[in-house]
Amino acid sequence: MKFHVLTLFPEIPRAFFESSIMAKAVDKGIIAYDLVNIRDFALDKHNTCDDSPYGGGAGMVMMTEPLVRALESVGVRSKKIGGKKTTGKSKKRVIYVTPSGKTLTQKLSYELSREEELIFICGRYEGIDQRVIDSYVDTEISIGDYVLSSGEVAATVIIDAVYRLIEGVITAESLQEESFSDGLLEYPQYTRPEVFNGIKVPDVLLSGHHENIRKWRLKKRLEKTLMVRPELITECRKNGTLTTEAEKMIEQILFSGD
Ligand code: SAM
User: How large a percentage of the chain has pLDDT more than 90?
Assistant: First the structure.
């Protein structure tokens, strides 16, 4: 998988690509990346990349020309010219990170992890010209209902959610029971010491009894999900992913207070 990040501030995502598990995945050749500085594609000697919005209003808008030249430098071609669709399919999926996109989920992260190349456009100021979105962008993604000052952090969040799902980056087992993998939140985790701040690790986790540990963990996942994200349980029911065992536990939790 290759990530291209088109940005006015390459130093922000660079730290991520050069650290920890991502750096190892790059070393192993599982992940490749390039950071494209949009300013390098500006047309004037001041490297200007923003201009005032048509219609007036606060702030600036990222100019079309430097951004389009940056996109074309990584092999992206316009999907439309003069409002008409062009031919030729690209294997590169272009993502614009924006508060007005669809919200990132684990499901969408899995979908993106199956792509060969992802190209991220990081916005600044009031964002980018709508015609660039119409002509070049395949998917608009938001990382949540709030506004950041720029797209670099949002793009990095999406890249982080996606790359760890690619085979060979982390162990498949680690992905199995984590939050959202099957629609539920994760169970609580403990490590040494056995007693911390007067609180003991639950006995079941010290018992070595795998079946009891599995049941305890499932119950804790259901309790947590019911408490903080009940809509996820409704979603699981709709998708048919709640087992009879889980439904019985929910009944127990809700009606016996156990
Ligand atoms: N005028 C825009 C609006 O009201 O939707 C906000 C622009 S914001 C100050 C600048 C850039 O930050 C955006 O173009 C986008 O790339 C990025 N950004 C801000 N919040 C975001 C979010 N929640 N998800 C993804 N990207 C975001």
Answer: 90
Segments of the chain with pLDDT less than 50: none
Contacts of 148 (CB under 8 A, 6+ apart): 99, 154
CA–CA separation, 95 and 128 (whole Å): 12
Q: What separation in Å is there between the alpha carbon of 80 and the centre of ligand 1?
A: 24
Work out which ligand 1 atom sits closest to the CA atom of 126.
1
Domains and CATH numbers, the chain: 2-172 (3.40.1280.10), 177-256 (1.10.1270.20)
User: What token pair was written down for 133?
Assistant: 């979105």
Report if pTM > 0.85.
Answer: yes
Using most ligand atoms within 8 A of CB, pick from 60, 102, 150 the residue to mutate for ligand 1. 150
Protein residue closest via CA to atom 24 of ligand 1: 142
Residue 181 is predicted with a pLDDT of: 85
Query: Tell me, what amino acid is at 121?
Result: I
